[in-house]
Every structure is written in C-alpha cells, then in structure tokens.
Amino acid sequence: MYFHPALETLTRPEIEALQTERLIKTIQQCMRSSFYQKRFAEYKLDPNSIQSLDDLKRIPFTTKSDLRDTYPFGMSAVPLEETVRLHSSSGTTGKPTVILHTQKDLDAWADAVARCLYMVGLRKGDVFQNSSGYGMFTGGLGFQYGAERMGMLTVPAAAGNTARQIKFISDFGTTALHAIPSYAGRLYEVMEEMGIDPRKDTRLRTLIIGAEPHSEAQRKRIEDMLGVKAYNSFGMSEMCGPGVAFECTEQNGMHIWEDYYIVEIIDPDTLEPVAPGEIGELVLTTLNREAMPMLRYRTRDLTRLLPGKCPCGREHVRLDRMKGRSDDMIILKGVNIFPIQVETILMQFKELSNNYRIHLETIDSNDVMTVEVEINDLFTDDFAKLQDLSRSITHRLRDELLITPKVKLLQKGSLPQTEGKAVRVKDERNPY
Ligand code: AMP
Ligand code: ZN
Question: Cβ(301) to ligand 1 under 6 A?
Fold first, then answer.
C-alpha cells in the first residue's frame, strides 16, 4: 500500500521529530551558501540558535526575487562541480530563476514522485505516458525519473502532436497518463475526431493532472470524458518540481510530504500565520536538499490546510486544491477575482467546452471583463438558444463574482491552445 512505508506512515510526533532533526541539518547546509550567510548576518541571527520548529519563525522569508537576484548560481550551497542538473523557470515576468541539483537531490526527487505514483494505485506493470514538455519544465524529467523509479514502463511522449500522443496511448497500452488539465480536454477532442472511445479503445485508467490551477468541476469533466480517475499533482521548480503534494485515492486534498518540507500558511499582507484552516500563502522550507536548500520560501500559491485524519493512514498534512497564485488575482472595479472562480461556474454548463479565457480591456475609461468560452460542437447554432445560454452564464457569474462580466460564446477551436500551461487571462487594460 505504501512505497516508503516507514516514512509515509509516520505519526505526527514522529513527523515533528524528524523535521526538527532535518531542519537543523538544513540550516547547516544553508550556511554553505553565500546568500544565506549574508542573510543570517544581516538579521544578526545565529544559525546555531535554530533548534526547534518554533525557532523557524525567526528566520526571514526567501522570495522569488531572492532567486532572481542571485541568478544564476548565487544561492547554491555546494560547489558547482558537485551539481549534476539545472532547471530554469522564466515565470510570467520573464526574469529567469535557476535551481541546481546534486545527484542526491535528484534521487530524493525521483523517490518523492515514485511515492506519489504508487499512492494513487500505480504499480510495476502499468505503462506510464508523460505528455509534459521535457527540457527545462520539471514536469518532463520529474515524472520520467519518478515513474522509472517506481518500476513502470515510462513513455516520454512529451508535449505536442496530439494525434501521435493518442497513437502511443493505443499502441503501447498506456494505462496512466500525466497531462496538464487544459491539455486533457484537447486530448479528448482529438480522440473524438479520430473516432476513438477512450473507455473501449484504450487501457487508460489513471490520469495525473497538475501544473496549473483547475477546479473540482474541471476534474470531474476530465474523469467523465476519458473514463479515468484523475489525481491532482502539485509542485514547482523551486521545490524540485512534481512530487511536492499529491492526492491519495481518497481524493480529499493533497498530502504534502512533511519529511521533505515544513509547511506554513501565512497571510500575504501581514506575513503572520493564518488561523487553522484559513486560506493563505503557502510557505515551504526544504528538509533534504543539498544544492539549493531553501528556508521559508514564499510560493505565492494560495491554499489552506485541511483538517482531520485521512483514511489512507498517512498523517502528512493535506493541502486544499490551489485557489490560484496571489499574482493571478484580478482586481476589477475594486473586486478581487480568481480565474478559478470563473472556471467553476463555466464547467457547470454542459453546453460549454473546457477552453475559456478572461479578457480585460479598457473601453471609454471603463475597465471591462469579457469571459470568452467555446461551446461544444454538439450544441446548437440557434441564435435564441445561444442568447439564453449567454444570459444564464452571465447571471451565474454575477452571483459568484459580484460584478457583471460580458460573456462571449465562441465556436470550438477559436481560442488559442497552448502546449504548456493554459493562459487564462489576457489583460489589455490601460495602466493607471
Ligand atoms: P513551475 O515552477 O513552472 O512548474 O510552476 C509551478 C507553479 O504552478 C506553482 O507554483 C503553482 O502556481 C502552479 N501549480 C503547479 N501544480 C499545480 C496544481 N496542481 N494546482 C494548481 N496550481 C499548480
Ligand atoms: Zn490520504
């Protein structure tokens, strides 16, 4: 039932004892990095004074800007010749960051991913296909090595060429696929065009979806379309990549591996911990990284910790589905909106496809939001019916968002399809 039984079934006191021991080692490792040496000196913080999980609070946060400012190798805690892999992420602003790995880091990462894949019921004998982009994007190599570590035949199909992707699924008897949620919808459309019924004509049973925010409604759709169970996978390149948090078969939140990370949820404005169960920014401290240990890294991802014990027997805390990133939040006429709120409403309309975009523009000095969404092929071209549909979508969105967006229904295929993470917001508002 468990890939690493001893580590996955640690009790809370055991988790905390292990975290304390690993935190002290991590601080020692951080002191080999010129960045953390300076940081501790600047805050007049004695590294030897950090002896308990409580002491963590005295350590300053590490941010994405720190990674950018130290680009490319300034945060490394080992000499460059001890590192064996580099991943880089350009993020949304285009300023790059670099993450370095030693062989030990890569082994620990592969173990974490293998543990996740085993947790959702995959076993030796399964055929695992990865439709992620390879290269710098960690969803490629991250899942490749994790699935191999678990002992599965692993197909590095990579992104793009959907017809070929589907041919691989059929020819190789793929039972499990890793895909970005927005791509899973595309895959189904092309299967339909090719006359392939995923339930009857393929052995696909498990989907791993992650890398971008998606709603529970979107997951249900994907599961229904492809006849699979779809498990949410969360990770980021700063924390290696995939394998940070993953759903178990209970599908009740994502266990975050607390032997790898210390988890905090803070209020992004006050930087204080939120009350238990409240939504806030996820902050992570690595516990077994050699090349780039990180203390209290502000991920900018918004989520909350879920209460209660999971029936699967793992006491590693569970994160709720990501609400989005603090920098994804749209502020329109003083109202805060997350794209996932729009998605949750749209997915409730069976007449709509999975592809949508939020367009923001300024018209006559007024900021306007238009929700552009593709309709399903099978839906009507009857104008009156389309108008009715558009009206009901507008009402539901207004109830959810408290502002009234315009709704634009589009023919299938009108919105751009990306190979990587979907771009859900096009912001063309005039700057103030
Ligand atoms: P990258 O470092 O380019 O792989 O991007 C990592 C970011 O992708 C995270 O910080 C999240 O914002 C987002 N992300 C990854 N996995 C998920 C997920 N399962 N749900 C929502 N957002 C995710
Ligand atoms: Zn569980």
Answer: yes
